[in-house]
Design a protein that fits this description.
The complex is a heterodimer of chains A (about 120) and B (about 110). With about 120 residues, chain A is mainly β. Chain A is built from no helices and twelve strands. In chain A, strands 2, 5, 6, 10, 11 and 12 form a six-stranded mixed beta sheet that branches. A four-stranded antiparallel beta sheet of chain A has the order 3-9-8-7, with no helix packed on it. The radius of gyration of chain A is 14 Å and the shape is globular. Chain B has about 110 residues and is mainly beta. Chain B starts with a strand and ends with a strand. In chain B, the strands form two sheets. In chain B, strands 2, 4, 5, 6, 9, 10 and 11 form a seven-stranded mixed beta sheet that branches. Classes of the chains: A mainly beta (about 120), B mainly beta (about 110). The interface between A and B is medium-sized, with 26 and 27 residues.
């Protein structure tokens, strides 16, 4: 079956530090990959996505590249801000077998805390 | 543009009482709809999904049920709540094409006393 593995948190950084949150996946078909962000007390927001190998998704200074050879989709940001403190979820959508139900498989989430 | 509304935002209920959480989507037709539960602010557990009116698939056996009486309305219910039903409940929708992202509501914080 499909699965997503994220690096264990929490991750604590100082403002302007470089961020990497690792995400690897297993899938039976040709998945699309997503990063979601959840701020305290809120729902999840789509941060970025990539639909095929070598695609790079980017948004708000965050980026992630779909690496089929390493089955990875690591999230990076060059300079984090205090306002980036949140929980980050990696997810995949797999249409193996032709299903288009849109079910996502989520990682467990990584808590990021950025200090001034 | 599409929007998703979920209510109430918070709810405190006694054990054994009924539950009804509602989710509606605007600005799209025939969406796929989903209910998740999130425990301890971390991982998401898919509870139900629906690809059309009256079509509900359950992902895990539990004390909850879901219904879709209208195209853009998704309801999560229980006849008798358990302490273990406490958590953060999230509704989401997606388009019906392949590999569509899901879009989430703001969630309902449910506390069972």
């Amino acid at each position: 079956g499909n699965s997503v593995t994220q690096m264990e948190g929490p991750v604590t950084l100082s403002e302007e530090a470089f961020l990497t949150i690792n995400c690897t996946y297993t899938a039976t078909g040709y998945p699309s990959l997503f990063w979601y962000v959840q701020y305290p007390g809120e729902g999840l927001q789509l941060l970025l996505k990539a639909t095929k190998a070598d695609d790079k998704g980017s948004n708000k200074g965050f980026e992630a590249t779909y690496r089929k050879e390493t089955t990875s989709f690591h999230l990076e940001k060059g300079s984090v801000q205090v306002s980036d403190s949140a929980v980050y979820f990696c997810a995949l959508s797999d249409t193996a077998g032709g299903t288009s139900y849109g079910k996502l498989t989520f990682g467990q989430g990584t808590i990021l805390t950025v200090h001034p | 543009s599409q929007t998703i509304h979920q209510w109430p935002a918070t709810l405190v209920q006694p054990v054994g009482s009924p539950l009804s959480l509602e989710c509606t989507v605007e600005g799209t037709s025939n969406p796929n709809l989903y209910w998740y539960r999130q425990a301890a602010g971390r991982g998401l557990q898919l509870l139900f999904y629906s690809v059309g009116i009256g079509q509900i698939s359950s992902e895990v056996p539990q004390n909850l049920s879901a219904s879709r009486p209208q195209d853009r309305q998704f309801i999560l219910s229980s006849k008798k709540l358990l302490l273990s039903d406490s958590g953060f409940y999230l509704c989401a929708w997606s388009g019906t094409g392949p590999n569509q992202p899901q879009h989430f509501g703001d969630g309902t914080r449910l506390s069972i006393l």
